[in-house]
Write a structure and sequence with these properties.
alpha+beta; OB fold (Dihydrolipoamide Acetyltransferase, E2P); 4 domains; 18 strands; nucleic acid binding
Length: about 290
Amino acid sequence: MSRLEAGTVVQLFEAREVPFGYFLTDGEEDVLLHHTEVPDNFDPQEEQTVFLYQDHEGRLAATLTIPEVRKGHFGWVEVVEVKENLGVFIHIGLKKDILVSKDDLPELFRLWPAKGDKLYCSLKTDKKNRLFGKLAVEDDIRRLAKFADKNLFNKNVKGTVYRLLLEGSNIITEEGYLGFIHHSERTREPRLGQLVEGRVIGVKEDGSINLSLLPRAHEAIDEDAERIYSYLISRGGNMPYGDKSQSEDIKGRFQMSKGSFKRALGKLMKERKVVQKDGWTHLADHEKE
């Protein structure tokens, strides 16, 4: 069995120079340091600290670039490519990107990380010594955790989703706080690796936090009011909806409850942007005309 394993850092010596680089050795096994990986100040007489990986031909190769992410060492990495039949590729600082197998990703493709998302990973090898990304588990993430203070309540924080559960999503914030988003506190389930921004709705005794991705009441009203106002403009300033309209009609047209609709409509009326007449709503300027 080979003593040299992909994903590890080892010290090797020059065995021989070849036209396409140097073969380095541990005394029993040789591995190629390709000329594209050789810096100008390279001294073949010195012991070399190298990282081992597979090149594009699948052969064990060496690089003098030592990535933070390797076997037994975790770090944040960016997703650079998504292939539904394989998984997602992450960039760890090498010329070759590393695959996180689809077997280690959510069952639903829509919940897979997208390009630009971040994952907390180390590396692993299979029985054929092929190198793969290894997603962090809960214990790995907890080593990064910081204790959240009570004064965080109602503050907005940003964090990366690192675990998907039936009842919600786990995130770790940019500050290092562990957070949980219950499924009732979001309109859409975020992807693994997605950066989200939410409001702290609870700080627990263990120093973790509960988050909501739903807007605050006044923010929701502003958003709903904008939606109604835009719809009015698209219809030439008039619409057959008002505070007496049926709930199912409002839900079907605006994707909001009747209560939300009435609050938003009330805001627009208070601002004298709209008026109601005979069950219709009109832009105020249009009505004057």
